[in-house]
């Protein structure tokens, strides 16, 4: 049995805060005002279309009165018919001209906002992306972008034209007839707008619940599909389907309630329109009976009512869609307002060229306040030298690479390159100087060529192939039917772990940076392939400042210095022979790994 508490009843009149509405509109306005000439020209076409549209019933009235007279002049109806046709065509002409003029403005605004949000998301810290779910963020961007187009379309093509037409009709009714027609029309309009706004505001929370549950369901689906193999490993297809359906059930309840309340809203709007039309036609018919109005006047009033109430009936839907569009746009703009935790300082400088030295000076770091990762860490990597960091899982080794890339800022101390604090350098300049082979290689769902070429998109095909050869990958690629044009699949899942890691090595070698980081670079390779690639990695490290983060000690034997980390501290340091001779933690790890390798070979 479903619980009725799944969706609480929203309080009456609770709407999106006005400050948020105006903030959203103020944020959007500059993107449109950049094309002010097109905007103003489109508004001119809008007014022209409505003048022509209002003129059509007036010409129709004159035609009816002219044809109904005892003395008919053939030329009069012919001229009116010609004018009637011209006005009809003018309405369509100005409407389409408005569309032509404003189409570029709308699409350019959507493009620029989407691009700005996309760039900002890439500028946010790794912490933000680890805490947010990709499915929900992508859905926010998708709905927000679509809603910008909807908001502009509904405003320019529905609300403004309707308001202009209402103003023109009221003026004509006041001038040609009496104030009674104006009062009835205004009373109907006010009652309709007040009812629509109040009920639509009451429905805002229901619509929000629909969207929240839609995003949550989409997030669960994306997360489950990204982890397809894990789902299969544990035979949890039914479990995943139940979790997805739980969220869909909440969405179903919210969507059903939204549809039901929409029906009540439509009934109320129809009742108000019916009362207004009845009152207007009763007054006009009474005027005809009393001889104060002609049949043409009756037709004119009726035509005006039809022209007013048809878009007004649609206006209720438009209002609801605009409110929803504002909510969706606000969510997307909220992404723009996310704090950019790691930002360049106003006086940030470029990283100087030439040999680079890295210093970790009394570095303290914690991902969370109560979980210290690095504690007073001190070491240096001289230009062109290789320093290896080893230790058990959780010692803080991989954190060094994230800090060096400045995905996070240190909590205490400083990391320096050639004496410059990373926080004083421009991030783009810093990251351009570093190449990394990460422990967990994630590839784009594109070709092998694209993924290697990503290291330096301007590289030639020959350079890409040379990097693949250096990573012992070229022969494997040539054995594939499509060779370098082979698709690697979502996150590179069509390749084995070792093949993905060799793509990552080729990508880093192609980048050809002065600083190299190998973060468990050969962890997914077998011993034979590891030995083949190890020589290439050591060759690549010559002349570069290199940091090797490793668990397998056989990969760091030739490093200029080896640091042994434990619980965020360096507990031993020295060369491979010196550390073995010391008989400490490193020597114990070496012995255990040698025994394990011998057992595997046996």
Summarize the structure.
This protein is α/β, with parallel strands linked by helices and 602 residues long. It is 64% helix and 10% strand.
Outline the structure in words.
This protein has 602 residues and is an alpha/beta fold. It has 3 domains: 18-336, ABC transporter type 1, transmembrane domain (ABC transporter transmembrane region fold, Up-down Bundle), CATH 1.20.1560.10; 357-433 and 521-602, Rossmann fold, CATH 3.40.50.300; 441-512, Rossmann fold. It has 18 helices and 10 strands. The chain has helices at residues 18-33, 36-68, 75-123, 126-131, 134-176, 179-226, 228-233, 237-289, 295-336, 397-404, 427-432, 448-453, 461-470, 474-478, 497-511, 527-541, 576-582, 585-601, and strands at 358-368, 371-381, 386-391, 412-417, 420-421, 434-437, 515-519, 545-550, 561-566, 569-574. The strands form 2 sheets. Strands 6-7-8-3-9-10 form a 6-stranded mixed β-sheet. A hairpin with a 2-residue loop joins strand 9 (561-566) and strand 10 (569-574). It is elongated. The two termini are 61 Å apart.
């Amino acid at each position: 049995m479903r619980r009725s508490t799944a969706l609480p009843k929203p309080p009456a009149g609770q709407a999106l805060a006005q400050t948020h509405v105006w903030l959203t509109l103020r944020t959007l306005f500059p993107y449109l005002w950049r094309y002010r000439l097109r905007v103003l020209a489109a508004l001119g076409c809008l007014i022209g279309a409505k003048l022509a549209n209002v003129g059509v019933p007036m010409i129709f009235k004159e035609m009816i009165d002219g044809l109904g007279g005892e003395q008919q002049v053939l030329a009069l109806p012919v001229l009116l018919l010609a004018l009637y046709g011209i006005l009809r065509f003018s309405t369509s002409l100005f409407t389409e001209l408005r569309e032509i003029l404003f189409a570029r403005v709308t699409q350019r605004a959507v493009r620029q906002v989407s691009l700005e949000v996309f760039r900002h998301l890439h500028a946010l810290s790794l912490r933000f992306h680890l805490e947010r779910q990709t499915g929900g963020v992508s859905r926010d961007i998708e709905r927000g972008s679509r809603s910008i187009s909807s908001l502009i379309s509904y405003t320019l093509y529905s609300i403004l034209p309707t308001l202009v037409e209402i103003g023109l009709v009221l003026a004509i009714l006041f001038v040609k007839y009496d104030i009674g027609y104006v009062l009835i029309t205004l009373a109907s309009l006010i009652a309709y707008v007040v009812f629509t706004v109040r009920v639509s505001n009451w429905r805002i929370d229901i619509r929000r619940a629909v969207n929240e549950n839609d995003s949550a369901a989409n997030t669960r689906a994306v997360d489950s599909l990204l982890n397809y193999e894990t789902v299969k490993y544990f035979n949890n297809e039914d479990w995943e389907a139940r979790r997805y359906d739980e969220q869909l059930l909440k969405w179903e309840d919210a969507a059903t309630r939204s549809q039901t309340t929409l029906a009540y809203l439509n009934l109320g709007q129809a009742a108000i329109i019916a009362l207004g039309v009845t009152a207007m036609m009763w007054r006009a018919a009474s005027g005809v009976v009393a001889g104060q109005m002609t049949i043409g006047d009756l037709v004119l009033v009726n035509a005006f009512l039809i022209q007013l109430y048809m878009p007004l009936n649609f206006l209720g839907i438009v209002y609801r869609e605009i409110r929803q569009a504002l909510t969706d746009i606000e969510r997307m703009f909220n992404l723009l307002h996310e704090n950019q935790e790691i930002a360049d300082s106003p006086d940030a400088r470029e990283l100087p060229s030439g040999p680079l030295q890295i210093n970790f000076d009394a570095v303290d770091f914690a991902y969370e306040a109560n979980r210290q990762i690095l504690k007073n860490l001190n070491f240096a990597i001289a230009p062109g030298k290789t320093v290896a960091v080893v230790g058990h899982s959780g010692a803080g080794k991989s954190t060094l690479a994230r800090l060096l890339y400045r995905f996070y800022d240190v909590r205490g101390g400083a990391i320096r390159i050639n004496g410059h604090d990373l926080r004083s350098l421009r991030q783009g300049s810093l990251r351009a100087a570093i190449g990394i082979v990460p422990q967990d290689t994630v590839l784009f769902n594109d070709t092998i060529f694209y993924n290697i070429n990503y290291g330096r998109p301007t590289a030639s095909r020959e350079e890409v192939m040379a990097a693949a050869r250096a990573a012992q990958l070229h022969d494997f690629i040539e054995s594939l039917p499509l060779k370098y044009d082979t698709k690697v699949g979502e996150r590179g899942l069509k390749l084995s772990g070792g093949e993905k890691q060799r793509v990552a090595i080729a990508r880093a070698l192609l980048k050809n940076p002065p600083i190299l980081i190998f973060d468990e670079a050969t962890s997914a390779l077998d011993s034979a392939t590891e030995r083949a690639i190890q020589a290439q990695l050591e060759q690549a490290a010559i002349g570069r400042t290199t940091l090797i983060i490793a668990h397998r000690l056989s990969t760091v034997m030739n490093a200029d210095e080896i640091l042994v980390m434990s619980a965020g501290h360096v507990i031993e340091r020295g060369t491979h022979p010196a550390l073995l001779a010391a008989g400490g933690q490193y020597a114990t790890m070496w012995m255990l790994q040698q025994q394990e390798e011998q057992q595997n070979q046996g």
